[in-house]
Structures
1.
Amino acid sequence: ISPQAKGLVWQVWSPEVSAAARADGKLVFVDVTADWCITCKANKALVLEAAPIGPLLGELVNDGKLVMLKADWTRPDPLIAAFLSSHQRFGIPFNIVYGLAAPEGIVLGELLTANTVEKALIEAALTR
């Protein structure tokens, strides 16, 4: 587990960690990213780590309602490639939100906005 620059805590993604968090009834936010992905960095800086979404995500993590998983594709990884392929995706950024109301996940667009992230969390069964 490593904190991001703005204090968000990301766990390392794996199919098992994702499945376990969903089985516990938690919201799960998966971010497939890479060090070389400029759009990924922009999404983090402008949406995921910025107000209003950054503080909301932090609050949900601290309250035990959300698990944030980072799948680092900086170097090729067959598990991440298979995960992307299972969602008919072959590139990054790729973000998906799972929850009790969205067991198959809600795929977000490549360019994140505060509204799309918040809407996905609500649709996936966000409760405060």
2.
Amino acid sequence: MIELKNVYKKFGENVVLNNINVKFTKNNIYGLIGRNGSGKTMILNTICGFVKPTSGEVIINNVNIYKNNTFPKNTRALIEGPKFLNNLTGYENLELLASINNKVGKKEIEKVLKEVNLFEEKDKIYSKYSLGMKQKLGIAQVLMENPDILIFDEPFNGLDEQSATKIRKILLKQKEMGKIIIIATHIKEDIEQLCNKIYKIDAGKLN
């Protein structure tokens, strides 16, 4: 379970998260809806251990991650767009990331590339990828090590409808496997039939 307790974040005089209290549990897909600058991406960064709150607690599987100075375990994220090495192929980029934990190898990498419809382009240099292909590679890196928590920021950006439909089916399958999935977007239609619960966020407040 993920729990945010009274999470408040301020940069200078700018309040970006205003007393956030929310729980996310397994077997669910959650949506965060808000315009750009509303605070939804900041919530994702806070959950991932990237941005320490000014006050409040982020508790993941009974671990207060900031108090313990740790990152959440078995968590993967795609935040603010995919970022990979331009001079490597799609496959090589995933292979490089996989080498950090050595949880998966060629078989799993190729499997996830097939799942997101990117296998035919696996040997293409990343700098030659279209926006949609880059997005699918970003989704693939979230999926490939079978994490318990999957976090996405605008995951359908740049995807054609066929690819978006396939990704939705993948996420529903992941939910059935007991995962926690959190999706932030400014387009409600992207997730309204996908999520068990949708929160609206505006000016750092969650409703």
